[in-house]
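Lab notebook, design round three. We kept the backbone fixed and only want residue identities now. Task for the bench partner: fill in a sequence for the structure below.
Input structure tokens:
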């Protein structure tokens, strides 16, 4: 038996399968990466000014102590033999000129003597400090000659510490570092989150 051609050409009543399309890809947060530029700039600018500020400061007073160690102890022991207490004063050499401090009359060095300056001086201006004793019979005797280059220095018998305000980084530098770091951290975390989801 042969089938008629009409039976073979009849369309089937089943529906053709529908082609499923993928939903369009989500727009990832690549635009947020542009925020890295200002965040990195703030972070770098703040770090630069936090770590790179001018050294030095202003000297407001000068402290004299006996040199630590055996040399200072031996020098102190020799001075104890003399029944007179020294009348120590300082002669300070600066770029603007020299000046003398008032003497500490009949005062041993002990834990240190501090001379307050009439007006603050920049640290870079102080070149040399000489220690003098005006308690001698004929003329003042120079006890020590100390060349300064930093906040403290030692001579043959004594140690000089310059006291005052040291230069600090600008107060706005650390907040800029925090803000810039927070922006960069947020952008990176958000970008990673967008890639994972």
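Proposed sequence:
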């Amino acid at each position: 038996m042969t089938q008629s051609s009409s039976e073979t050409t009849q369309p089937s009543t089943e529906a053709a399968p529908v082609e499923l399309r993928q939903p369009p890809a989500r727009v990832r947060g690549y635009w947020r990466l542009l925020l890295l530029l200002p965040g990195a700039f703030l972070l770098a600018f703040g770090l630069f000014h936090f770590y790179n500020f001018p050294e030095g400061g202003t000297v407001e007073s000068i402290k004299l102590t006996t040199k630590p160690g055996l040399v200072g102890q031996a020098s102190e022991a020799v001075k104890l033999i003399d029944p007179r207490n020294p009348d120590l004063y300082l002669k300070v050499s600066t770029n603007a000129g020299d000046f003398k401090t008032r003497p500490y009359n009949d005062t041993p060095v002990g834990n240190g003597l501090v001379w307050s300056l009439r007006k603050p001086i920049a640290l870079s201006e102080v070149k040399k400090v000489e220690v003098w004793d005006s308690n001698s019979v004929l003329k003042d005797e120079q006890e020590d000659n100390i060349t300064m280059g930093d906040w403290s220095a030692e001579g043959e018998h004594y140690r000089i510490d310059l006291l005052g305000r040291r230069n600090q980084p600008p107060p706005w530098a650390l907040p800029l570092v925090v803000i810039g770091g927070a922006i960069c951290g947020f952008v990176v975390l958000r970008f990673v989150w967008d890639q994972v989801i």
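Keep this in mind before ordering anything: Residues 27 and 34 are 15 Å apart (CA to CA).
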